[in-house]
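subagent[fold] <- orchestrator: predict structure for attached chain, return tokens only, no commentary.
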Amino acid sequence: MNFDELIETWKSQDDKPIYGVNHDLLHLALRQEQDSIRRSLLLENWTTYIVGTAMTALTGGVLWWFFHRGGSNQHMLVAAAGIAAFLLWIGALWVSRRRQNQREQKFGSTLKEEVRRSLSLTEYQLSQAGQWSTVLLWCAPIIFGSIITFGLIMEINDNTSLWFEAGFATFMIVSILWGTYDSSREARRKLLPQRQRLAQLFEMLDAQ
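subagent[fold] -> orchestrator:
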């Protein structure tokens, strides 16, 4: 029986609903749910760190090329801005995850505290992906850094077609805008009912 099934069983009982579900089993279900979320967040973390580091290294290589080939100060400043954008993306995620871990450590090990910890995790996911504007803000450094890097590589290859560069930038921006909208909509669809179930569970425990 998974977490959702336990909650439904609990809610369906009219007499003493708290005693109809084994506390230890519910406790275990909450822990398993939390572990599943943390694994998902960990995968997201490492994906960001690896991709962000690779893009930083690529832009660093572009900066090195302009530095050693006598590129203009403008080119080098733009490349440095691209590196800063990718580092900002990585750093912001690291700080965000660290703060969430610190919040979770403040909760105890009772069933009620486990519900609060699960609520905190769900709220964190919603704060990261539940609103289109927030997701777009997280993606802004990626858009900025990627467009800069692509444009500089075109300069290195003497391919300065304005239409080609503008088309690529437009394609990337539209793709990311649509992707962020779709991912935030999917996150709300999944996480809002989960938050509601956890809130109801907390109210049930609080009423005992």
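orchestrator: received. Logging for downstream: Residues 13-20 have pLDDT under 50 and may be disordered. The radius of gyration is 23 Å.
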